[in-house]
Amino acid sequence: MQPVCSLAQQVNSALSWLRDAATAHDRANLARFGITAGNALGVSMANIQVLAKRLGRNQELAAALWETGCYEARMLTAFVAEPARVTPAQMDRWCRDFDNWGICDTLCFKLFDRTPHAWDKVEQWNGQSEEFVKRAAFALLASLALHDKKAADGKFLQGLVKIERSAGDERNFVKKGVNWALRSIGRRNSALQAAAAEVAGRLANSPQASARWVGKDALREFAKHPR
Predict the structure, then answer these.
(1) Is the dihedral of CA 198, 203, 207, 212 positive or negative?
(2) What structural domains and CATH numbers belong to the chain?
(3) Is residue 35 pLDDT above 60, yes or no?
(4) Which terminus of the chain is more solvent-facing, meaning fewer CB atoms within 10 Å of its CB: N or C?
């Protein structure tokens, strides 16, 4: 019978594994994809997922991994945390720590959209001004559009209102999150694509450069992939 490792030992073991898997090529890729993470080792997403499968779901371990501040350890959190046990306060704490689009989108796409608090956080974070908190609102909305098969169209119609209000935000990571959400809503069904295209049409004619980019890009997407 193997001895049970303490939480600290599990964290140290995970960090050691990540250090061994790190490469200069993967560190360079972070910069190439515009990910500015101050405490990054340089481990590919494929290898992060290999380790995540070995670790399995463990909420306490996920919280401890996040506290290390290591970029790759925090990415592991998306796959190790237990969605049903993630609390609203925990989501807020982690969201406030977001400092690049990679960690923001991964947490939203792989974890936050599976929690029972996801829709509440779209509403809450949409009203905040910090760049990556604002992006998280729309990354989460996009993730829900792609993954929440039971959500009624009405939720996404309300999301389109938020998108139109925020499309003029010139900050790069916000406008790209808004665009992702708009395109994702338009992929759900024909009715939502029609509603999303109507919003995109108005944005494409906006006097604001960011809104025009969001609208025109979405219209091109809908033309290529009509529902």
Answers:
(1) negative
(2) 1-81 (no CATH), 94-227 (1.25.10)
(3) yes
(4) N
